[in-house]
Amino acid sequence: MCGPAGIWAPSCISSAQVAAAELNRGDGIGGRRVQLIMIDAAVEADEPIEETVNDLIELNAIDAIVGMHLSAVRQRLSKVVRQRIPYIYTPLYEGGETTPGLFAIGETPKEQLAPALLALQARYRPRSWALVGNDYVWPRSSHSLAKSILKASGVDLAMERYVPFGLPNMSDMVDRVEASGAEAVLVSLVGQDAVNFNRQFGRRGLHRKAVRLSCALEENGLMACGRGNLERMFSVSSYFGSIATEANACFKERYYGLHGDAAPALNAIGQSTYEGMHYLSALLRDHGTVWRQRSSRDMLPVIHASGRSYVRDGGLKRPDIYLARADGIAFSDFKVL
Contact at 8 Å (CB) between 32 and 24? Predict the structure, then answer.
């Protein structure tokens, strides 16, 4: 709710409220009414998230966690929760989560970044890429995959740089990207940090020299960047608020039906909290207490409501992945990867 990722909070809270309302129109979860307790899980939060969550579990004040926060926080929390309550982690992440009792439902770089990078490489044929991100596990893991793809494709790495959260000025980062001569930039910055980078990038007219790709730029960030700073900017995600699918049409109807037309922007991060609530309900309904011994790697068949569209990959269902272009303050030209 604070820090660079705080820009996502209104969409996440509003989406979770839709799921809670839907569940409570039925029998809640396991016959019990759903009550949401919002906890600030930002890295910059005043209270250590581990202490807060541990106290709530010890007091039997919470029965489950649906978490939309950074992977760095997930890694800290997983050591505290310790299978005492189910933990659903909702956003895109770096993959490889195997903690028992923790279920990560978001897309991974292999699913999301790899096909998008190859698609832009084929379309624009940049001779070199710059990789910029916040200094934590998701950007570093994503960039490791990107570097292996670039190397296999015979494409140069112009630069790679990581910065702490909440860097007050992105001038140095943009200077380095410009000086590198990169013809494409993978932007793995979070929330407001990505906004600040893209604003400076656009104001300098660097879009004329380099195309940009992000795995985490959503509708709130898009609007904050400003219409003139987003030329040749692409985003890849399993969900966009304006995608014309049956699943999204149903979700949008319920979302705006509850919150009205002035509701926070629909985006992938917010939708993930909606889906996480329904995933939790379906997990407990269909699999009982097996969650204590299972994890993301078990890929349990959990049939749940979602704003995303899914495709079957062998015996598993995974969400469609879309590459979209920033068009003013909206996304357009959706391409299924």
Answer: no
